[in-house]
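User: Run a structure prediction on this.
Assistant: Running it now.
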Amino acid sequence: MERAIETPEIVQPRHGRQEHEGQLFSMASFLNLQKLIFTGSPLSEVLNNIAQLVESQAKGMFCTIWLPGEDGKELHCAAAPSLPGFIARVGTMAVCPKGASCGTAIYRRESVYVTDILTDPLWDDYRDRLTPYGIRSVWSRPLFTSQGKPLGTFSINYREPRSPSRIDLELIEEASHITGIAIKQHMSEEALRHERDRLRLLLEITNSMTSKLDFHGLVEVLSTNMLRVTRADFCALLLPDVDCGELRLTILYNPESRGSIADGAIIPIHGSVCGKVFRSGRSQHFNTLEELRDDPESLGNEVGRLFFERIKAEGLESGCDLPLIGRSGVLGVLSALKRSEEGFAIEDVEFLEQVSRQVAIAVENALDYETAIKDRDKETKQRRYLEEEIRAELGEIVGKSPALKTALSMVSVVAPTDSSVLVLGETGTGKELVARAIHKLSGRSEKAFVKLNCAAIPLGLLESELFGHEKGAFTGAISQKTGRFELADKGTLFLDEVGDIPLELQAKLLRVLQEQEFERLGSNRTHKVDVRLIAATHRDLPAMVKRGTFREDLYYRLKVFPIHVPPLRNRSEDIPRLVRHFTELYSQRMNKGIDVIPPETMDALVRYQWPGNVRELQNFIERAVILSPHSILRAPIAELEPFQSSGELNAPMNGLAEVEREHILRALEASSWVISGAATRLGMKRTSLVYRMKKLRIHRPDQVLQNRRTGAA
């Protein structure tokens, strides 16, 4: 018997043939076949053309072409142009020692020529399939690639017993040569198409995964996409569990689950294939689970043997486990398993390794995102804790209004830093309490908190208070004095009413803030300090900068982190809580048992605008507690109605009030004296604007009132 043929790369007539062979296939026939093969025609069309071309060379000849299945264990007929219904009825032939002519030829890796199938034992299991077509002799020649992979067989059949002549042998050799090229070309095109589809699928998977930042969303995407990629029976993601030190399994899909391996199961790192992959960072491909049964690194130890039984009970037989490698090492394992042996070819594993690299990126991003969310939530909890700590340590800060919460959240953000803070707010809003809270929550909390009210110190003594002086530095300096900056070294200095610092002293203050050094009055020695400055003011510093009464560079140096403390009228929902707090505070101090606040009293307190803010409310409640002889708070709410004498009405305004009055007037004129419109322009509540108009003696012009009456008429 002849040896199997290996196919060359191009279609051309075989060289060295005799004259009659040149007439066998004309050059036109070769060119036509070459066009069909290399222009992407369907394989069935190409094979049928080859078979018909060969059949045309001899009368009574029937040609068939057989191709192997995916597993290579059987052959099926792909072309039989002159035998109607043959492909559908003949079935498959096994690749084995008695697999008729074609199956035996592949098995032996050589041509098999059977003269009469009725007597040849190779056909014992198959002759009944061909007898309906009258076939008696079958000559099969196997086709292989240069690497030895079977491509199929070319078969010539006759309806009478017959042995091949030399010309027949050359004919089948030529036909097999062309057929092999056609099949190999088709396989190459299919491989390219398959690779193209895989790359497209890989791109789709990558795009779908990158759009999911949260881990649960990523698992949903993977559950859909991995089925398209692996076509496995079981696919799972395994990530380390920090609590138990093993791997926790997240099933992506397992439609035919048998219950032995559940979602969320703990998988041993030392006693499983995926554990070995996680430790080594290398893929593990196995055609049968039995291959790894005695592997001490995976299933061969005591723990592994128990896990082996769980896998077998789930019916899983083969697959591959792939490491998910991130920037800092192995993140986890991607497992794809099948319930049949030899589930994945080498090229499948190579593609899955490409997929696993993209999955690793997506998993790492999702884990980083979850960590960021947890950190954010932790920071939020810490911030809430700090806010509560502020209230616990400094009971005077009372309230839960959004405006106050915003200010307190800013306190918790800036407190751990050493940055300068500018606390802004009206008189009596609690700016000093905010400053103390910042100090208490900072790294300087164990050091001194030194405060200085710049408005309470005579101008001539303010410099000495800040920087200190030497003995004899000026008249009355009978001893050396340590300044507030020195006292606050390593701690915090709180300068209240910083807007009242005279212009000539502001330059020295700026230098201390920038250089952290100063000289005492009457001394040339420079002192180095480490002080965190917190400044506060109720003044409009930007307006003062414009007027030239406050240095612009100092303003920006102070305004590193501004915190606005809301006035009490902007957080009226906190008034009931403040009233109860101050009532309890002063009741305890005065040994009174006041525990009832009449509703009408509380309503009046809430409605009042409190121009003096919390300080005014605190003083009012203290007076009310003094006036209350029993358990009911008797507040003098009649005093809450503002009373202005004629002298006060005609009192001259200061410069800041004039600026505010002009600003409000321009807004009113721009909105045609519609108060709600002007309030919107000014970013104020309507009630606040009405209050400021009364305060600044702004009245709607008579002409505006007359025009509105005319329009209404």
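Residues 439 and 445 are 6 Å apart (CA to CA).
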